[in-house]
Structure formats: structure tokens, C-alpha cells
Amino acid sequence: MSEHKTRAIIMHKSVTDLDEIKVSEVDRPLPNSDEYLIQVKAAGVNFVDILYAKGRHQNNRALVRPPFVLGLEFAGVILSAPPHAHFLAGERVFGAFPGSYSEVISLPALSPLHRIPSHWTFPEAAGIAAALPVSYASLLRTGLKPGQTVLVHAAAGGLGLMAVQVATAMGCRAIGTASSSEKCAVAAEFGAQPCLNYTQEPVWWERVLELTGHNGVDVVFDPVGLVDRSLKCIAHRGKVLVIDFAGIDDKMEHIAMNRVLLKQASLIGYRYGESLRRCPGEQKMI
């Protein structure tokens, strides 16, 4: 491959099977006086990437249309930096950037980059910049307080793992759910107390009630599409965070709204990207 070329995953059209995704050879970005040039060492994989690839994300209608490079978050090494920039060539950084599934990327000088601690690996840093802000900011929306209990669905996924750690760091108990014992082991390692395998415990909400002394959970973090069943184990005036619908293929779930009324529960939808577009100051707060 020529030194003027690099490799990237470009979506020229939407796919139905992820095996259709191919690596392409593209022009390598050139150093620019107002941009960082970064060699990507690792990139995060998110459910949103799958939605983008299949053309099923709401942003595919206007903001993300083919051709585009997949990827939302990365970790790498700065190859060149703008004059007087905060980071220098050779430094290890991570960040969020649409189009990070490329060996070399260029970012505007004002892009929010973060220095990688010396004891972190590139793969460890690559999964933070897109997933953590979503989990952190959405939990803040609930007014979460120390001592409360959070039910985290898909607790071993990118968003779920972050939610478990954020809730724990805020002095809360995180109860997780996942689809296998292996995933539950990962969630437990990161702080889930405990993690319930819903393939073995299909009426997991009853177990959640037992774990909370039949008081229910204060907050539900749901990136899957389990609102209706979660309302069976929510506390009075509890809050449900609707983050995504990763477990739903076509039809949205049917929610028994009488449970919302009887529990005086709140349903809170959270979209990080849309929040930043409408409220730019939120990023600084996060």
C-alpha cells in the first residue's frame, strides 16, 4: 500500500448482513495546521455502529448518509499537532470521533481529546469516549443519589458496564441483567451486585424485588427495550431511562401505562448526540 493511502471501513450503502462490511483503501489525511493527525491503535465497537451500518439509526436520515466511515470512539497516537495545541505529537490520546474505523484520522484542533494514563492499554481507552458520557449524563438526569439502587440492563455491554461503574462511584447499588453467565461475570467484576442471567431467571423482576426487600429499584437504565417488565420492579416514583432498543428488531415494545400511573413512575428518554446539538453547554458539564 502506498504511503499516501490508508485503510478504513467505508459504508457506501446500508447492509443487511454485517459480513458485507469490507475494509477499503482510501487517501491518507494530510497534516493540517488546524487539525490533529492521529494513528488509530484501537477503536470501540458500539451497537450504534451496527445501526449506522444497517441504515437503521435515526441519524441515517440526514446526518449520517453513505458514503461514510464507521466508528465513534478511538485510542491512538498523535502523528502531528497544530501549533500551540494542548497535545503534542507522540502523545497517547483517546476521544470520540465519527469515522474512527480508519488507520489514520484527522480531527479539528478543538476536538475533546483525553490523555491516556500510562497504565492503560489502547483497547481499554478506546471504549470510553462515546459510551461513558451517555451513561454518566443520563444517570445525572435522574437526580441519582447515594444509597439508591439502579437496575442496569445489558450490564456487560458498552453502555451497561459504564452505567454500573458510574452508579457504584456515585454511592449506589447496581443490579445488573445479562443474557449469559459469562456476561454476568464481567458485569459483577465491574461492580454489579449481583448480575442476573435472564435466560436462567426469566422472571428476573421478581428476583429484583427480592433483592430490594420488595421496595423496587429507584432507577432503571435500559438500553435494551425492557421498560414494561422493569416497571414490575420499580420503586414508587422510580425513574426509567430509555437509552436504546438493542433487544428489539422491528416493533417497539408495548408498555402497560397503568403501571406508570400506579407507581407514579417517570420515563426519561436520553440521546447524547441530540442533547449536545440542542444544549452545547452540556458537554462541558459532563
Automatic annotation (TrEMBL):
GO terms for cellular component: mitochondrion. GO terms for molecular function: oxidoreductase activity. It comes from the Eukaryota. Pfam families: ADH_N, ADH_zinc_N. Residues 16-286 form the Enoyl reductase (ER) domain. It comes from Colletotrichum higginsianum (strain IMI 349063) (Crucifer anthracnose fungus). InterPro entries: ADH-like_C (IPR013149), ADH-like_N (IPR013154), ER (IPR020843), GroES-like_sf (IPR011032), NAD(P)-bd_dom_sf (IPR036291), Zn-ADH-like_protein (IPR051397). SUPFAM superfamilies: GroES-like, NAD(P)-binding Rossmann-fold domains. This is Zeta-crystallin. Coiled coil: none annotated.
